[in-house]
Amino acid sequence: MVKAGNIVKRLLITLPVLWLIVTAVFLLIRLVPGDPIVQMLGEGATAADISTLRHAYGFDLPLQTQYWQFLKGVLHGDLGRSVRLREGVMALIGQRYPYTLELTAAAMFLGILFSVPAGIWSAYRNGTRVDRTIGVASLFGLSLPNFALGPVLILVFAIWLGWLPVSGAGTGWQLITHLVLPAITLGSGLAATLTRMVRTSVLEELGKDYLRTDRAKGLPERTVVWHAFRNALVPVLTVVGLQFGSLLAGAIVTETIFSWPGLGRLTISAISNRDYPLVQGCILAIGVTYVAVNLLTDLTYRLVNPRMRSA
Predict the structure, then answer these.
(1) pTM: predicted TM-score of the whole model, two decimal places
(2) First CA to last CA across the chain, in angstroms?
(3) Of 212, 195, 210, 203, residue with least CA distance to 232
(4) CA–CA separation, 23 and 71 (whole Å)
């Protein structure tokens, strides 16, 4: 098992990372031109109304005071109220966050489902037509961005064929049909990246001496390939953890294309409305998720590879 001290050590390492995320978000959003209060009230608002509302949200305070208040709120689980929607930021994130996790998990599942068999088969059939075909397909997946693939899938499967809904999330079993196109759009790049990674890692393992020993013992070929894949898991798991962050970032574009009611779409809306508290909360939620997944990945490949447990 992984030592408890290593877990605590890595948890402590994440704290400065989270602080940097919080600070960067707080400062960067204020560099965006525009006044959130004027944006909310409109150009016809009087100076008195603007001043009153700016005071109500604390925007008239010095920047350092706003920063310390924001940090204090984060420590107490209070991210303030949305300027535009007039609701608590934590409540809004709680409503949208599950949809983003569902989309990201579905994209991750589809990416792994297609990439692992394809990568193993490509490595096993190295240099053959199968290997070249899978290589071309993965290159195509890497080259086609979400904002191009999404509209094509909508045009073909939603408009021409009428098999799947165009936008929204639906409820109950309808959620699955609404999830298919966004998940494919988001997961295609991951599938292409993982296919290449699995192929490279398995191909490297297939040339090692211990697999020649397995074959000499008369073990079935599928057992030999399984041994190669199991020992190639560490770099693959690392890439999966890093790609999860890319999926969260890509979800912003994908959710916008498919009108998916997740955190990414909420972030875009908050940025366009200069909604400082909501932008800070959304980016913080995405950052915390990314850090948590990378920590989980670190612990997972230490379980997979016993040699790293004492590192």
Answers:
(1) 0.81
(2) 13
(3) 203
(4) 9
Measured distance CA(281)–CA(29) in Å, rounded: 11
- The token pair at 113 is 């489902």
Residues 73 and 136: their CA atoms lie apart, in Å, by 50
* pLDDT < 70 stretches in the chain: 1-7, 301-311
Give residue 1's pLDDT.
47
CA separation for the pair 57, 40 (Å, rounded):
12
Report d(CA 13, CA 144) in Å as an integer: 36
Yes or no: say if 119 and 251 are a contact pair by the CB < 8 Å rule.
no
Within 10 angstroms of residue 40's Cβ, the number of other Cβ atoms is 19
42-45, Cβ contacts within 8 angstroms, sequence gap of 24 or more: none
Which stretch of DSSP H or E encloses residue 117? Answer: helix 89-124
Q: Report whether 45 contacts 38 (CB < 8 A).
A: yes
Give the span between the Cα atoms of 178 and 176, in whole angstroms: 5
Distance CA 298, CA 234 (A): 10
Q: Give burial (CB, 10 Å; 0-12/13-18/19+) of 244.
A: buried
What burial letters (b/e) apply to 162-193, b meaning 16+ CB within 10 Å?
eebbeeebeeeeeeeebbbbbbbbbbbbbbbb
Q: What is the pLDDT of residue 210?
A: 79
Q: In this structure, what is the dihedral angle of CA atoms 62, 63, 65, 71, given to the nearest 10 degrees?
A: 160
